[in-house]
Amino acid sequence: MQPPQIKTLTPKKLIGKSLPMSVSKDLTFQLWQSFMQNRKQITNAIGTDLYCLQVYSNSFDFKAFNPDAQFEKWAAIEVADFNSIPEGFSSIELETGLYAVFNYKGLPSAFGAMLNYIYSVWFPSSDYELDARPHFQVMGAKYSNTSPESEEEIWVPIKHKLRV
Fold first, then answer.
1. The 3-state secondary structure of the chain, one letter per residue
2. What stretches in the chain show pLDDT beneath 50?
Protein backbone atom coordinates (compact mmCIF):
# COMPACT_ATOMS: atom_id res chain seq x y z
CA MET A 1 0.00 0.00 0.00
CA GLN A 2 1.16 3.48 -0.83
CA PRO A 3 2.06 5.90 1.98
CA PRO A 4 -0.27 8.87 2.30
CA GLN A 5 0.28 12.44 1.22
CA ILE A 6 0.29 14.85 4.15
CA LYS A 7 -1.93 17.81 3.29
CA THR A 8 -3.31 20.86 5.04
CA LEU A 9 -7.04 21.11 4.45
CA THR A 10 -8.44 24.54 3.71
CA PRO A 11 -11.82 25.18 5.38
CA LYS A 12 -14.79 23.70 3.53
CA LYS A 13 -18.51 24.31 3.84
CA LEU A 14 -20.67 21.23 3.23
CA ILE A 15 -24.41 20.66 3.00
CA GLY A 16 -25.80 17.19 3.37
CA LYS A 17 -27.62 14.71 5.55
CA SER A 18 -26.43 12.78 8.58
CA LEU A 19 -27.43 9.78 10.64
CA PRO A 20 -26.10 8.29 13.87
CA MET A 21 -24.88 4.74 13.31
CA SER A 22 -22.32 2.10 14.23
CA VAL A 23 -20.45 -0.55 12.30
CA SER A 24 -22.92 -3.16 13.57
CA LYS A 25 -25.91 -0.97 12.67
CA ASP A 26 -24.68 0.46 9.38
CA LEU A 27 -27.17 2.84 7.76
CA THR A 28 -24.84 4.08 5.02
CA PHE A 29 -27.06 2.86 2.17
CA GLN A 30 -30.16 4.60 3.59
CA LEU A 31 -28.19 7.81 4.22
CA TRP A 32 -26.81 8.01 0.69
CA GLN A 33 -30.12 7.03 -0.88
CA SER A 34 -31.86 9.88 0.95
CA PHE A 35 -29.10 12.35 0.05
CA MET A 36 -28.89 11.42 -3.64
CA GLN A 37 -32.68 11.57 -4.15
CA ASN A 38 -32.70 15.23 -3.14
CA ARG A 39 -29.20 16.60 -3.79
CA LYS A 40 -30.34 18.62 -6.84
CA GLN A 41 -32.06 20.93 -4.34
CA ILE A 42 -28.59 22.14 -3.31
CA THR A 43 -28.15 24.99 -5.77
CA ASN A 44 -24.80 26.45 -4.69
CA ALA A 45 -22.60 23.34 -4.92
CA ILE A 46 -18.93 23.73 -5.76
CA GLY A 47 -18.02 20.92 -8.16
CA THR A 48 -19.46 17.42 -8.17
CA ASP A 49 -17.25 15.62 -5.62
CA LEU A 50 -19.21 13.89 -2.88
CA TYR A 51 -18.06 13.76 0.74
CA CYS A 52 -18.65 10.92 3.19
CA LEU A 53 -17.81 12.17 6.70
CA GLN A 54 -17.52 10.33 9.97
CA VAL A 55 -17.73 12.45 13.12
CA TYR A 56 -16.54 10.57 16.21
CA SER A 57 -16.95 11.59 19.84
CA ASN A 58 -13.83 12.19 21.90
CA SER A 59 -14.51 8.91 23.72
CA PHE A 60 -14.43 6.87 20.48
CA ASP A 61 -11.53 4.40 20.78
CA PHE A 62 -9.86 3.38 17.53
CA LYS A 63 -7.43 1.05 19.33
CA ALA A 64 -10.17 -1.08 20.92
CA PHE A 65 -12.55 -1.77 18.05
CA ASN A 66 -16.17 -1.90 19.18
CA PRO A 67 -18.66 -2.54 16.36
CA ASP A 68 -21.46 -1.04 18.50
CA ALA A 69 -19.69 2.31 19.11
CA GLN A 70 -21.84 5.14 17.76
CA PHE A 71 -20.67 7.88 15.42
CA GLU A 72 -22.32 10.33 13.06
CA LYS A 73 -22.03 9.75 9.31
CA TRP A 74 -22.66 12.41 6.67
CA ALA A 75 -23.38 12.34 2.95
CA ALA A 76 -22.56 15.81 1.65
CA ILE A 77 -21.34 18.11 -1.11
CA GLU A 78 -19.19 21.24 -0.87
CA VAL A 79 -21.01 24.56 -1.22
CA ALA A 80 -20.01 28.19 -1.64
CA ASP A 81 -21.95 29.35 1.41
CA PHE A 82 -24.74 28.44 3.82
CA ASN A 83 -27.18 31.08 2.52
CA SER A 84 -29.56 28.48 1.09
CA ILE A 85 -29.91 25.17 2.93
CA PRO A 86 -32.78 23.09 1.52
CA GLU A 87 -35.34 21.63 3.91
CA GLY A 88 -34.22 18.29 5.29
CA PHE A 89 -30.52 19.12 4.87
CA SER A 90 -27.97 20.36 7.40
CA SER A 91 -24.64 22.14 7.24
CA ILE A 92 -21.21 21.25 8.56
CA GLU A 93 -17.92 23.06 8.22
CA LEU A 94 -14.54 21.34 7.99
CA GLU A 95 -11.87 23.37 9.77
CA THR A 96 -8.35 23.79 8.52
CA GLY A 97 -5.95 21.13 9.70
CA LEU A 98 -3.42 18.49 8.83
CA TYR A 99 -4.62 15.28 7.15
CA ALA A 100 -3.06 12.04 5.93
CA VAL A 101 -4.61 11.45 2.51
CA PHE A 102 -4.69 7.86 1.27
CA ASN A 103 -5.75 6.87 -2.24
CA TYR A 104 -8.04 3.85 -2.28
CA LYS A 105 -8.80 1.81 -5.38
CA GLY A 106 -11.27 -1.07 -5.20
CA LEU A 107 -14.69 -2.20 -4.14
CA PRO A 108 -16.35 -1.03 -0.91
CA SER A 109 -16.23 -4.65 0.32
CA ALA A 110 -12.40 -4.44 0.53
CA PHE A 111 -12.37 -1.04 2.25
CA GLY A 112 -11.90 -2.62 5.69
CA ALA A 113 -8.44 -3.89 4.75
CA MET A 114 -7.41 -0.34 3.89
CA LEU A 115 -8.68 0.98 7.22
CA ASN A 116 -6.83 -1.81 9.03
CA TYR A 117 -3.61 -0.78 7.27
CA ILE A 118 -4.12 2.90 8.19
CA TYR A 119 -4.85 2.34 11.89
CA SER A 120 -2.79 -0.80 12.61
CA VAL A 121 0.25 -0.39 10.36
CA TRP A 122 0.69 3.19 9.17
CA PHE A 123 -0.17 5.10 12.37
CA PRO A 124 2.09 3.13 14.75
CA SER A 125 5.09 3.62 12.45
CA SER A 126 4.39 7.27 11.58
CA ASP A 127 5.26 10.54 13.30
CA TYR A 128 1.53 11.29 13.67
CA GLU A 129 -1.44 10.50 15.85
CA LEU A 130 -5.16 10.98 15.31
CA ASP A 131 -6.60 14.43 15.78
CA ALA A 132 -10.18 15.02 16.98
CA ARG A 133 -11.71 16.29 13.74
CA PRO A 134 -13.97 14.63 11.15
CA HIS A 135 -12.63 11.81 9.01
CA PHE A 136 -13.88 11.80 5.43
CA GLN A 137 -13.70 10.31 1.96
CA VAL A 138 -13.84 12.32 -1.25
CA MET A 139 -15.61 10.49 -4.05
CA GLY A 140 -14.89 12.16 -7.37
CA ALA A 141 -15.30 11.31 -11.05
CA LYS A 142 -13.44 7.97 -10.71
CA TYR A 143 -15.71 6.69 -7.92
CA SER A 144 -18.18 3.88 -8.56
CA ASN A 145 -19.45 1.70 -5.75
CA THR A 146 -19.82 -1.26 -8.14
CA SER A 147 -16.42 -1.25 -9.87
CA PRO A 148 -13.10 -2.72 -8.73
CA GLU A 149 -11.51 0.23 -10.59
CA SER A 150 -13.29 2.72 -8.31
CA GLU A 151 -11.08 5.38 -6.72
CA GLU A 152 -11.55 7.68 -3.74
CA GLU A 153 -9.46 9.64 -1.27
CA ILE A 154 -9.47 8.84 2.44
CA TRP A 155 -8.72 11.91 4.60
CA VAL A 156 -7.65 11.09 8.18
CA PRO A 157 -7.11 13.99 10.64
CA ILE A 158 -3.64 13.96 12.15
CA LYS A 159 -1.30 15.88 14.39
CA HIS A 160 2.37 15.39 15.18
CA LYS A 161 3.10 12.97 18.03
CA LEU A 162 4.26 14.62 21.20
CA ARG A 163 7.91 13.85 21.91
CA VAL A 164 8.76 13.02 25.52
1. CCCCEEEEECCEEEEEEEEEECCCCCCHHHHHHHHHHHHHHCCCEEEEEEEEEEECCCCCCCCCCCCCCCEEEEEEEEECCCCCCCCCCEEEEECCEEEEEEEEECCHHHHHHHHHHHHHHHHHHCCEEECCCCEEEEECCCCCCCCCCCEEEEEEEEEECCCC
2. none
